Structure formats: structure tokens, C-alpha cells
Amino acid sequence: MKIQIQQRDLLNHISIAQKAVSTKTNISFHELIYFEAKDNKLNLYSTDGEISIITSVDCFVEEEGDMAIAANVINNIIRKLPNDEVKIDCTDGKINIKCLKSNFNIIAFEYYEKENLKEFSGDHLTIDNHILKETISETEFACSNDETKIALTGIYLECKNHYISFVALDGYRVALKNIKSEYPQSMKDLEVIVPKRAMIEFSRIIDENSYTEIYKLENDLVFVTDDTIMYTRIIDKNYIDFKNFMVDNSKIQVIADRVDLIHALERASLLADSQNANLIKLEIASGDIIIKSNSQLGDVMEMVKIEQKGEDLKIAFNARYLLEGIKAIKTEKIILAFQSTLNPCLLYPHYKEGEEQENTYTYMALPVRVAGEN
Known about the structure:
- The protein is α+β, with helices and mostly antiparallel strands.
- The chain has helices at about 5-15, 70-80, 130-140, 195-205, 260-270, 320-330; strands at about 1-5, 30-40, 40-45, 50-60, 60-65, 65-70, 85-90, 95-100, 100-105, 125-130, 155-160, 165-170, 175-180, 190-195, 210-215, 220-225, 230-235, 250-255, 280-285, 290-295, 300-310, 315-320, 335-340, 345-350, 360-365.
- The chain contains six helices and 25 strands.
């Protein structure tokens, strides 16, 4: 195998392939990247058993062939080279890498027989990458980290009623993004759970000015964007029926400046007691939200002006759960909808007149019941 390629192009695609390389494994080939030079293209392949990535880049192929190399080794070498032409020659299990005055000689690894990745074609979902990237960031943080609740560690993807829905929940909050989309009839009623890590890593790969095609195989989902393909195993579990939690029966609605509310909550959370669910108390009254918290170190009170519809209310939350939902919303103002002290709070973006969007976002946070209060 002999190729010539620009350092910047090679580094970019090594970085993509490395997202499917495991750093915690006893399986040696999960630490490797497989290089295949063919038809003036360099194809890079990697897998950790859950995610598999194939990414391709144009290059000059003097001699076709293949090699396997430790991902961290090749990444560190190419990263430190100047942005110039890189020459790679792999012969008899030895790899020579040259760039200007740099000359590396390293050992090639024997690669296992490549995993038989299934072919895909036909009907698929299509999502603009800037929407997909935004959607993943708006939901992934609400996934559970509890491996005993494996279904909740992934993002639930559903196609129904001309919307593609992405859902994440952990038992204390729900993040839901609905994307308006026309998709093939065969994709109607699609329901899958995608591992959180796969979604996050893919969001780091994609070019916001492009788009992604999503194909469903028997046990895998395939994401295709530009010159990169990612296969990910589906979590084969039943998801919680979250829809009843997201019904808005609110009697009280509040419109608040998002940044002002974030800053007030962040300051209040500084004295929230970590031994008591990071508890903060909210009092909605007379056009203000009064935010209080206390611990052994002291107490704090913050006040934020709001537009209030409905009666007054006292309610408490885990500070982090409320803050993360508010931060996920990007509009200047947000809507908080309440029913009672014991019912969930729903959060929405607040759009100015004429700015309404076809895609919708809803975040739900469960309140914390405070002893001695109704």
C-alpha cells in the first residue's frame, strides 16, 4: 500500500474514524483503524462493537492495499505533522510515514476479518444536519446514566403523524423534539432506541450545511452523511410511554427572559443542598418568580420579572434538572407551564409573532415534594 494525501484531509478522517474506537476494551481490534487504499480513495474503518464507522477521502493511490494501525498512534503522529503532503508506505507489516523532514517507521497490526456490515438502500429518513445536531443537543442530556435501565440510556426515535420525534428521559425529566417531515410510508410507525453515545458522536461528525439519511436494518440504524457512514446497534428494549406526561393541562403560565432566569437559578443553586436533591424553591406571585435555596452554608433569594397568567404558586425542583431544560431552549424568552405544586412543569420556547416554527420542543421536569408544604 502506497498513498499520498494532505495532512489536513487525513487528520480530519482519522478523527472521524476514532469516534468508533474503544478506549476501554480487552479486544485489540477495537483499538485499531483499518486503512484500505483503492480507486484513488482511502477508506478508514473502525468499530467498538456497538458503533462502526466507515469514512472515505480522496487521495493519490500509487499502490493499492490495506493496513491496520493503533488509532491513538496514527492520530498523534498525523496531528503533529505540518499541513503538507503525507506519504504512507506499508510493506511486509511495516509502515513508513513521511512528511517534509519527518520520517516515522511503525509496526502494522494484523487486522481481524472485517465485520460483515450489511448493505442498505431504499426508503430512509432525511434530516438537515443543522436540525439533527440541534435536536441531539436538546435531548441527549436527559438520558439516564443508570445501566440497569438500559432503555432509558438511549434516545428514542419515532415516526408518526408526519413528525420525526426524538425523546430522552431518565424518570425525573423528559426532553422531546418533534421535527416536521415527509417520510416514506414504509418508515411510518418506526420506533427505535439509539444509544446516546452513538448520537453524540455522530453529531460531532456532521457538517451543518449538509444532510443525513437514516436507514433501518434489522438490528441496526445506519446514518449516512457526505463521505461517512455510521452503523449503530439498536437498544432492543421497550421504551416508557411518555406521552401522558407531556399533556399540557396547565392553569398557570409564565413567560420569562431565558438568560435572566438561567443566571438567577445558577446563583440560587450555589447554596442548594446537594444532600437534599439540590433543592430550589420557586414562588410565582404578582409578576415575579422568587427563587430560594438554602443549606448549612447559608441561604439565597433571587427575583426575576415575568409575565404571569393564572394564580400564584409555590413549587420546588432539583436545580440541575430545571436548569438543563432551560439551557436547551435557545429563544430569548421561554414559557413555563404549571398545573399545581405536585404536577410536572412543562417548558417551551417562546416565539415572537411570525416566528412560530413547524418543529417543536417540549421539556418536562418533575417537581420535588417538600415536607410540610402542599
